[in-house]
Design goal:
Blueprint: H1 3-15, E1 19-23, H2 53-56, H3 59-64, H4 66-76, H5 86-97, E2 100-104, H6 110-114, E3 119-120, E4 124-131, E5 137-139, E6 157-161, H7 170-181, E7 185-189, E8 209-213, E9 226-228, H8 232-240
Parallel strand pairs: 1-2, 1-7, 2-3, 7-8, 8-9
Antiparallel strand pairs: 4-5, 4-6
Helix pairs in contact: 5-8
The chain binds nicotinamide-adenine-dinucleotide.
């Protein structure tokens, strides 16, 4: 990163009073969890099921093909051995000295595992489940990590992740928009900015600076004050001034 630009961004971080980070799948690729839309992403691999992966992640596919859905889900969406990487750790450490709200499109729970305490998950989480029949709730550790998990009542258990065709939780959206509206520094990173409504969240910011960090260009780059096309972990470490030893 160019030195003058880095100093300017570090100064903006120092002066900011309310910081929000909006992240996506690129935040977790260094933990071994593939993203969807980069050249190495899941959507660029031919589906072994004869159905596009995007279709498999829809609510109607979950209802009509729970076996195939869960086969794909356990193999691709749940990574039991994934650990927080530099990006998660740096954000968590920074949060110990200055308030930073994290809005993650990810469902992997790695920000909480790293120690961040203000985390919003508008797309849900692989950590939580519920029975579609009786509503009983389960945690990931309470269900087998293969096949279709079934409730004691016999109902099919569904992950509390937002599938295509499903609405987002309105209360979570409200919380995210309140954070964004009143923040004075918005850092966006590791996201293609192509998944709505989260891709529209930055529009709600009333005033302040926006920083984009992503390996590839995104449609939102032109709206940002600073654009960094680098690895998210390295870039966050540099701009937040946190040492990840
Ligand atoms: P996306 O796959 O559309 O885009 C990810 C972006 O991150 C790409 O533009 C890629 O170039 C960039 N990227 C990848 N590794 C990077 C790195 N190390 N440093 C900087 N940039 C990097 O992801 P999205 O925008 O988050 O949307 C996909 C949807 O699928 C979201 O809902 C997302 O949460 C979900 N998803 C979640 C996970 C997860 O929980 N870890 C994994 C895959 C997809």
């Amino acid at each position: 990163m160019e030195k003058t630009k880095l100093e300017e961004i570090k100064e903006a971080v120092r002066q900011a009073r309310r910081i929000v980070f909006i992240g996506g799948a690129g935040v977790s690729t260094a933990s071994g969890i593939p993203d969807f839309r980069s050249p190495q992403g899941i959507y660029n691999i031919e589906s072994e099921y004869g159905v596009a992966y995007e279709t498999m992640l829809s609510h109607s596919y979950f209802l009509s093909h729970p076996r195939e859905f869960y086969d794909f889900y356990w193999k691709t969406m749940v990574h039991d051995s994934a650990k927080p990487n530099k990006a998660h750790r740096v954000l968590a450490r920074f949060g110990q000295r200055k308030r930073i709200a994290i809005i993650t499109q990810n469902i992997d729970g790695l920000h909480q595992a790293a120690g961040s305490d203000i985390v919003y998950e508008p797309h849900g989480s692989i950590s939580h489940y519920h029975c579609q029949e009786c509503g009983r709730t389960y945690s990931l550790s309470e269900i087998p990590h293969q096949g279709i998990p079934r409730c004691e009542c016999g109902g099919v258990i569904k992950p509390n992740v937002v599938l295509y065709e499903e609405p987002l939780d309105e209360a979570v959206i409200d919380d995210c928009l309140t954070e964004i509206r009143y923040c004075d520094l918005l850092i966006i990173g590791g996201t293609s900015m192509r998944v709505y409504p989260v891709a529209a969240f930055p529009e709600y910011m009333l005033s302040g600076k926006k920083i984009m960090i992503n390996a590839e260009p995104t449609p939102y780059d032109k709206e940002c004050d600073y654009v960094i096309h680098e690895d998210i972990g390295m870039a966050l470490e540099a701009i937040l001034g946190v040492n990840d030893d």
